[in-house]
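Hi support team,

I've been running sequence recovery on a batch of backbones for a student project. Most finish fine, but this one hangs at about 90% for roughly twenty minutes before it completes. I'm not sure whether the input is malformed or the queue is just slow. I've pasted the structure tokens below so you can try to reproduce it. Let me know if you need the job ID as well.

Thanks,
M.K.
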């Protein structure tokens, strides 16, 4: 097999994906990529529009003889999750992603690949550029900022799209047809603290907990992976009681929808207890590695002696921060009663970041049941209000209710069965998709979400199956060819 991305099959898709990787496009920085796609479409005579929400819409006329088919909207988001390993030097706002072929997969060097959702965007662009693929009236919707608030979908205007069917290309298993998703809500907590001068007769340490897999806080939340913020505070809870440690800074995680993989803390420990403190840290590492032996084989927890910092948290702030972070819910809260194996409600304690006199804590709450999402928000509020934190919620987006009588679902299911001689998995997912939001603006759309196989999205281990991209591209073409008449 070739090691060059643009020589993989189908070449049009991989060439476009490689080009997409060359444009930095983390959330809220999609302008260059959007301009590239827009100009590429205009060069071949396609009509384009950027709406008030910053989304790119491209219109392509039907193939000859298919003008009377129902209109199809192909949809993908332009932004990617910027995650990297701590030893990888990469500026996501300036540097290109470096994809490479690794056997049957395409990966990136030390960073997220952005196949979520760059491979979907590449597939749509390839269809727009082709003169050979048969299809009815076609629209492409490239949304922005899906990963950090779905603001593109939220600001999608009415009266812009004319299609009858929406195919969202943001799913991550080629044997699945997705028909529903969870809704989400952001929790924003500000913990105010008082400073004290560094303790006398104390030493300072930087603690680093790293090597975790992380992953998508919706897709992977049920896999039992470690949350670096929760594991760190678990040790701190022990250390403050046993050794009287005082925190100076706490920094872990950097994306709401990514399970945190790395957390770093600076603290003071009395010199008289310094040796026992180091021993206990090593023992906690053994405990963590034993508990997570199957899912987190590379987990590590180390200490480094550092220069004395300018301040530590006062005793009350120190205890309050550790206790509230320890008490904050995290992970799967409830499984679905109606769909076997589906997470209903979850929370990701995603980000803890120290800035000046405050520590900012950010969580992502998900649920397919609105009342459960509200209940979880009240639970989070109750924890942090005990220590007089400021807490607010934003970014509330609806779930997408499954329609098992969907016409496009039936068509896609039949095509899949004929091509593969087995049945696809029809399911809802715990991750957030833009379908629910788009459907609230265009309530008559018939929708499913589909895509090639992507593993470990939202982490530097992200990879996309080469074989799956080819099979999915062929499946999508067959689906477009079989869209029914109006």
């Amino acid at each position: 097999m070739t090691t060059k991305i643009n020589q993989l099959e189908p070449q049009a898709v991989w060439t476009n994906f490689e080009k997409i990787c060359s444009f930095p496009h983390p959330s809220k920085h999609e302008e260059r990529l959007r301009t590239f796609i827009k100009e590429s479409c205009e060069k071949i005579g396609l009509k384009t529009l950027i709406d008030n929400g910053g989304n790119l819409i491209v219109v392509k006329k039907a193939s000859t003889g298919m003008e009377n088919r129902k209109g199809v909207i192909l949809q993908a988001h332009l932004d990617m999750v910027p995650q990297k390993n701590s030893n990888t030097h990469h500026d996501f706002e300036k540097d290109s992603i470096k994809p490479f072929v690794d056997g049957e997969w395409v990966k990136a060097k030390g960073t997220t690949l952005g196949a979520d959702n760059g491979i979907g965007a590449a597939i749509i662009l390839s269809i727009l550029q082709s003169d050979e693929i048969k299809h009815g009236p076609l629209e492409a919707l490239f949304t922005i900022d899906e990963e950090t608030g779905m603001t593109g979908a939220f600001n999608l205007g009415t009266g812009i799209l004319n299609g009858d069917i929406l195919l969202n290309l943001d799913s991550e298993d080629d044997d699945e047809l997705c028909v529903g998703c969870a809704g989400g809500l952001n929790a924003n907590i500000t913990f105010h603290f008082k400073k004290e001068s560094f303790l006398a007769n104390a030493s300072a340490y930087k603690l680093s907990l790293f090597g975790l897999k992380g992953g998508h806080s919706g897709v992977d939340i049920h896999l039992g992976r470690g949350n670096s913020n929760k594991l760190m505070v678990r040790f701190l809870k022990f250390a403050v009681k046993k050794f009287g440690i005082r925190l100076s800074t706490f920094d872990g995680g950097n994306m709401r929808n990514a399970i945190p993989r790395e957390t770093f803390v600076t603290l003071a420990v009395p010199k008289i207890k310094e040796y026992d403190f180091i021993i206990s840290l090593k023992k906690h590492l053994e405990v963590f590695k034993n508990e997570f032996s199957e899912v987190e084989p590379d987990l590590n927890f180390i200490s480094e002696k550092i220069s004395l910092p300018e301040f530590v948290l006062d005793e009350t702030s120190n205890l309050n921060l550790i206790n509230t972070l320890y008490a904050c819910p995290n992970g799967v809260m409830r499984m679905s009663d109606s769909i076997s194996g589906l997470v209903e409600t979850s929370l990701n304690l995603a980000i803890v970041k120290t800035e000046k006199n405050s520590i900012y804590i950010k969580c992502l709450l998900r649920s397919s049941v609105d009342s459960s999402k509200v209940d979880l928000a009240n639970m989070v509020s109750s924890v942090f209000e005990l220590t007089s934190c400021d807490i607010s919620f934003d970014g509330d987006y609806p779930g997408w209710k499954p329609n098992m009588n969907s016409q496009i679902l039936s068509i896609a299911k039949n095509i899949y069965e004929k091509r593969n001689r087995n049945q696809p998995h029809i399911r809802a997912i715990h991750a957030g998709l833009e379908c629910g939001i788009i459907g609230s603006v265009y309530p008559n759309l018939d929708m499913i979400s589909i895509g090639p196989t992507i593993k470990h999205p939202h982490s530097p281990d992200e990879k996309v199956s080469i074989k799956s991209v080819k099979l999915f591209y062929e499946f999508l073409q067959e689906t477009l060819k079989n869209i029914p008449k109006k």
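--
Follow-up from support: It reproduced on our side and the slowdown came from queue contention, not your input. The chain has a mean pLDDT of 96. No action needed from you.
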